Amino acid sequence: QVQLVESGGGLVQAGGSLGLSCAASGRTFSSYAMGWFRQAPGKERDFVAAISWSGDSTSYADSVKGRFTISRDNAKNTVYLQMNSLKPEDTAVYYCAATHRAYYSETYHPPTRYAYWGQGTQVTVSS
User: Fold this and answer.
1) Residue 20 binned pLDDT confidence (cut-offs 50, 70, 90)
2) pLDDT at position 22, please?
């Protein structure tokens, strides 16, 4: 089992930046590939970004490509999401998730592939 706790959400103006962190505890962090998802009110939970266990491979949703950056520090058991050039449509609850590293894919990111989830952190972008 792994426990995930997100932090860093908040309110920001359009065009601004925000950084999210997800601290993991429990079993070996490097056993897991990590992902960020988001869910806006009344909508499904959508993939945002993912990173392999080593950090050598990353993947992004088209809607955030070039604006968001996912990274990880295995020594600190933490994954990050740096969000730049934020837009009002980025407003959502952002969730950190973990899956066994063998399940990482650069192209396929269904939420059902991720076994462990954080509680979520709210990101609100005002226009």
Assistant:
1) very high
2) 98
C-alpha dihedral, 119 to 105 to 62 to 48, nearest 10°: 10
CA-nearest of 117, 95, 105 to 8 is: 95
Please state whether beta strands 121-126 and 10-13 pair in parallel, antiparallel, or not at all (unpaired).
parallel
Q: Are 106 and 49 in contact (CB under 8 A)?
A: no
Residue type, 85: S
CA–CA gap between residue 58 and residue 108 (Å, rounded): 12
Q: What is the mean pLDDT of residues 68-84?
A: 97
Residues contacting residue 115 through CB under 8 Å, at least 6 positions apart: 98, 99, 100
Look at residue 27 and tell me whether its pLDDT is greater than 80: no
CA angle 81, 36, 41 (to 5 degrees): 110
CA dihedral sign of residues 93, 94, 100, 105? positive
Tell me how far CA of residue 80 lies from CA of 31, 51, 53, 104, 108, in angstroms: 17, 10, 13, 17, 20
pLDDT at residue 107, as a whole number? 87
